[in-house]
Amino acid sequence: MPEAPRADGAAAVPDVDVVTAGGRRRIPAHSSVLGSASPVLERILQRRMQKIRDSGKPGRAVVRIRGVTDDVAAAFVRLLYAGRDGGNEESEMEEELESHAEQALVLAHAYGVPWLKRRCQEAIGSRLTPATVVDALQLAALCDAPELHLRCMRLLAKEFRAVERTEAWRFLRDNDPWQELEILRHLHDADMRRRRWRRKRAEQGTYMELSDAMDCLQHICTEGCTEVGPVGQAPAKSPCPGYATTCRGIQLLIRHFSRCHARATCPRCQRMWQLLRLHAALCGSLPDGHCNTPLCTQFKRKEQQKEAEKAGDGDGDGRWGLLVKKVKAVRVMASLGKRRSPTQC
């Protein structure tokens, strides 16, 4: 057992006996070390030391550690000493945690040793398997170990099929249905969060594609590209950077729109109508200003009339207004991402 140093450099004499559950083993220790490591042990030792002083009889205070084996109790005391010494006995601490991490977690929770509790959670979480995750989850619930609980739930969500085949899960299902229900509800909530995140990512991708389409449409109607250009101006001979992804599709859609005779029912023409309407909603020019994009001014005037009617009726923006807001937000975020910081200039 490590010895606690005194102020004069000499080793202090142990003044506490840690007695195991069976009473077959006494572990000499120092009240200063145990009290500084655990507030629970500090209060126990204060009462025991006060009784010894009141009785006037010399002797050591006795602290009983119940509910664990003699080896675990001795390992717990050694861990308290190793934590006091810091990194000097890191290898010894790792060995003790490798052998008695679960029991040490229970004792660290009972005696209020937060640093040891964190180390035990890390040790148990690092070797979780589908066969041990159910027991570790119950231990985390009993010892109020949120980090271990989180690791267990992550493994359950990842390897639930394998966990279902274990004996521990069958025992839990037969004897603790509430715990099973809580686990299943947590897994369901995690799955719903993943689905919402994927749906949101897909929506953001759609808004980004619409934003790129607006940029390509403005580029085609202002500067021109390989196949389509503004009125009275020849298209550019060299393709733009976005030609392969978006620009070529917009050009083909414009060419089809200019030649189609069934625009009212043609799905491709309807898509072009929606792109032109979206451009008008996002266009920064004034309603009476100049914009090379076809039908931009007409769509703006119609949108103003609709907004006036909705304001009179008290209706909201609707789905179209929400789409415009989302695309605007994506365009703003994209412009901020492309902006160079002062340190990059």
Automatic annotation (TrEMBL):
UniProt-recorded Gene Ontology molecular function terms: calmodulin binding; zinc ion binding
CDD domains named in the record: BACK
Record keywords, A-Z: Metal-binding, Ubl conjugation pathway, Zinc, Zinc-finger
One GO term of the biological process aspect: response to hydrogen peroxide
Domain BTB: 16-89
Keyword DNA damage set for record: no
GO cellular component: nucleus
Pathways involved: Protein modification; protein ubiquitination
Identification of the protein by name: BTB domain-containing protein
The organism of origin for this protein: Brachypodium distachyon
Gene for this chain: LOC100828777
